Queue: 2 jobs
Job 1
Amino acid sequence: RKEVEQDPGPFNVPEGATVAFNCTYSNSASQSFFWYRQDCRKEPKLLMSVYSSGNEDGRFTAQLNRASQYISLLIRDSKLSDSATYLCVVTPGAGSYQLTFGKGTKLSVIP
Amino acid sequence: SQTIHQWPATLVQPVGSPLSLECTVEGTSNPNLYWYRQAAGRGLQLLFYSVGIGQISSEVPQNLSASRPQDRQFILSSKKLLLSDSGFYLCAWGPPLAADTQYFGPGTRLTVL
């Protein structure tokens, strides 16, 4: 089983749609969880951290289910500018310097 | 504010040639520094990280090496490039006490022919 698995997509959605991305991780000792955004041929940028209690930042909501080892990202009212690849990222354990990245899910928001 | 620079932005090199990619960080002291590679169709792979000058940890055995000659300078090198070394090389920095916080540079796109 891969360490971090994501549906590669692409997800093609119209403007204004709600879209959800899912991610599973294999290491039950994982401590920290993130969603990064990567535009085409650019570096990844931190979108948001993911907490067990769930967290929301504007149109973006992230959820973590430790029991199921599952992370989600919900984007409401999609904008054209949301088109990018969304990377699920996990740290293996306390004090680890290694971020484990999923391969990413590509989102295209269509006019 | 902190900024991270990488150069060159793009590079085309023949197989067997040497490689030197440079990364510098401004606006912070004693950062953790990282080198990642993103190959086509694959996720980001951590290659090296450093928590201080002269301290290098390697995550993946290969023909690449890294050095940290100064606090905010991180260099990725190879003596002889392979075709499989092609990819997008990303340097990242993070605060010294926050191992899971990393900020990426603009990257170097390397093509080995």
Job 2
Amino acid sequence: EAGVAQSPRYKIIEKRQSVAFWCNPISGHATLYWYQQILGQGPKLLIQFQNNGVVDDSQLPKDRFSAERLKGVDSTLKIQPAKLEDSAVYLCASRAVGQAFFGQGTRLTVV
Amino acid sequence: GEDVEQSLFLSVREGDSSVINCTYTDSSSTYLYWYKQEPGAGLQLLTYIFSNMDMKQDQRLTVLLNKKDKHLSLRIADTQTGDSAIYFCAESITAGTALIFGKGTTLSVSS
């Protein structure tokens, strides 16, 4: 079974620029998460989708972050404009009942 | 509230057993997870346990759950240098809610 695919793996941008991350979940997984992992910390939820609907976006900084999951499959996470404190690894995960699988993540550096 | 706590660091010798501990505060949590993260990599699902179980064993890994004390542990038998990584404990109230992570325990294995 193919895993969760994310791209790009690395991205370096200047502050105030915009950036987008892409995620392709495991086939058939209705639940998709985006997490932010700052260096030295555990992952923190940004947004959860169930199919193409948002279940929880309470921790998403909506003034600069947006996410969508068209057709209930692939998802994109966008940051506009980026701040220095957005430097982190952005992890996508998909879930089937109990098991939640993560992608390799996108390491974002904002300079 | 939901909060997951782990000790930050554990050092063991190759061949010894490692025990990584975790406490959680949400007694409603149904699923409890252990993930492994190697440098520059995403999160690898090691194992998970349902709240109606006390123990789960999978090859060198043993998970113990004490619901009364809200305590979860991961025992790694015959620890190898390849086990050196950060181990994250996570909880999820239901199959439809997000995973809440601890800050991770760094396991260092010396030969």
